[in-house]
Amino acid sequence: MLWRLAPDSPEPLYLQLVRQLRAAVASGRMQPGERIPSHRELAAQLVINHLTIKRAFDLLEAEGLVITKRGLGTFVADRLPAGHAAVGRDEVSADLVRAAQAARRLALTREQWNALNDRAWRASASPEDT
After folding, report:
1. Would you list the DSSP string of 62-78?
2. Which CATH number fits domain 13-76: 2.60.120.700, 3.40.980.10, 1.10.10.10, 3.30.1370.20?
3. pTM of this prediction?
4. Structural domain spans, the chain
């Protein structure tokens, strides 16, 4: 999974991680039972404090989205919490609204917007989708 943090964003880094992991699970990019890199692995990869990662993981664990198995690591929960799909849809919807606002600021036409969406949809396909 490729994590992208925006240090200049008003959204705290740990919440950016939480949002991205929720979206990855909702979209199927991360599957139930899949291992998530450790706090220290992610901290090194993202060049941030490991306590920021821990804070995100603690929140996700409290939500029931991930589980930590002592000595083995952190994994996407086998059974996702009720309402998770709705949360994922809400996050995707919010991302689409932000993207549409950016497209309007760039004066893209509806046809250009639709073409970009189609291209993004195709680019996001996994081999199993084809």
Report:
1. HHTSEEEETTTEEEE-S
2. 1.10.10.10
3. 0.63
4. 13-76, 84-125
Residues 52-107 have pLDDT tens digits of 999 999 999 998 999 999 999 999 998 877 666 556 677 777 788 888 999 999 99
Q: Which long-range contacts (CB under 8 A, 24 or more apart) does 61-65 make?
A: 65/21, 65/22, 65/25
The helix (H) or strand (E) run that includes residue 36 is strand 35-36
